[in-house]
Structure formats: structure tokens, C-alpha cells
Design goal:
binds flavin mononucleotide; alpha/beta; 32% helix; 23% strand; Rossmann fold; seven-stranded mixed beta sheet
Length: 161
């Protein structure tokens, strides 16, 4: 399968998680492309700033998509939500949401983030696979990301077909 990993990451954690997933998928014979979501404003970090998504939002070349975001204020970043609104050719495809978060418990914004991403992509006609949240504080989150990457790659099967 051709799998797109569309990820917003300000400080690199969610991107690192996406890269681990990409490697796990490639190890199983899939193609995995990472699209880091960029904006025309280098510093949007809340909800109020104006920004435009400058990354390629066309998913036509992907069979399935992983959408990733940091948790910001108990929610997905406004940047990934804006990106989801602009995704093209996502209808009918499987989408798996991922998130990373600073706080130690997934109920401190992680679960809500996965739900909000899931609802947004469902509204675009995608079918949602179970999402994964990585909490950082008090966790060996590198290990959690590696384990989750292996499990996520299992959702997509073991061959390139
Ligand atoms: C503006 C902002 C708001 C944040 N809000 C939360 C939050 O509500 N809950 C939480 O657990 N972490 C929060 N964090 C921490 C990030 O979710 C966490 O560090 C994440 O792994 C960063 O991902 P990134 O490196 O891909 O940008 C916030 C970080 C920023 C910059």
C-alpha cells in the first residue's frame, strides 16, 4: 500500500513518531511518505493567529493516511484541523489518527484530540482506524512510540498488496 503520513509537529515529537511508523510500514513492504504540514506563519501556536497551509493536501496517491498532531490546549493543533479541511481525495480511504502530548495521561487532551481528528476525517468520507496517543511526562515515550509504530503497521497488513 501507499501510505501517507500527514503530520503537524512544532517541536519534532509527532514527526519522530511518524518517522517510526513510516519505517515500520516500510519494513512490511509498504511505501510510506511523510508530509510535514507547514504554514506561511512560522509561529502559530494557539487558535487566534492567521495562517495558510502551504503543504500538499492531495491524498490521491495514497491508499491510506495517518494524520498526526501534537495536543494543544486539550485539542488537536488548529494547523492540523485546517489541513484536514483541505485534504483532497480522502473519501473512502482508511485514516488512522496519532497524537503526542506533554501531560502523562491520555485523558488530559489526547483522547479528545483523537476524537476530534476522527470526526473531522469522517466528515470528509474517510473510515477511521483506532488512533494512538503518546504521553510524554513520566513515560519512556521513545519506547511507547516504537511499540505503537509496530502495532500500527500491523493494521495495514504484512505485504505491499
Ligand atoms: C501551544 C501548546 C499547547 C499545548 N497543550 C498541551 C495540552 O493541552 N496537553 C498536553 O498534554 N500537552 C500539551 N502541549 C505539549 C505538546 O502536546 C507536546 O509537547 C507534544 O509532544 C509536542 O509535539 P511536537 O513536538 O510534535 O510539536 C502543548 C504544547 C504547546 C506548544
Amino acid at each position: 500500500m501507499n501510505i501517507g503520513i500527514i503530520v503537524h509537529s512544532k517541536t519534532g515529537t509527532t514527526l519522530a513518531f511518524g518517522e517510526l511508523i513510516a519505517q515500520a510500514l516500510r519494513d512490511k513492504g509498504h511505501n510510506a511518505d511523510i508530509v510535514r504540514v507547514e504554514t506561511d506563519n512560522s509561529s502559530p501556536a494557539g487558535g487566534s493567529e492567521e495562517f495558510t497551509i502551504t503543504s500538499d493536501c492531495d491524498c490521491s496517491k495514497f491508499d491510506a493516511v495517518i494524520v498526526g498532531s501534537p495536543v494543544w490546549a486539550f485539542s488537536p493543533s488548529p494547523i492540523i484541523m485546517a489541513c484536514i479541511q483541505q485534504l483532497q481525495n480522502i473519501s473512502g480511504k482508511k485514516v488512522l489518527p496519532i497524537a503526542t502530548m506533554g501531560f502523562p495521561f491520555t485523558w488530559m487532551g489526547g483522547t479528545r484530540t483523537i476524537k476530534m481528528i476522527s470526526r473531522a476525517v469522517e466528515n470528509k468520507g474517510a473510515s477511521v482506524l483506532p488512533g494512538r496517543v503518546i504521553p510524554k511526562l513520566f513515560h519512556n515515550y521513545q519506547k511507547l512510540m516504537e511499540q505503537a509504530a509496530a502495532e500500527i503497521s500491523d493494521y495495514f497488513g504484512g505485504s505491499a498488496g
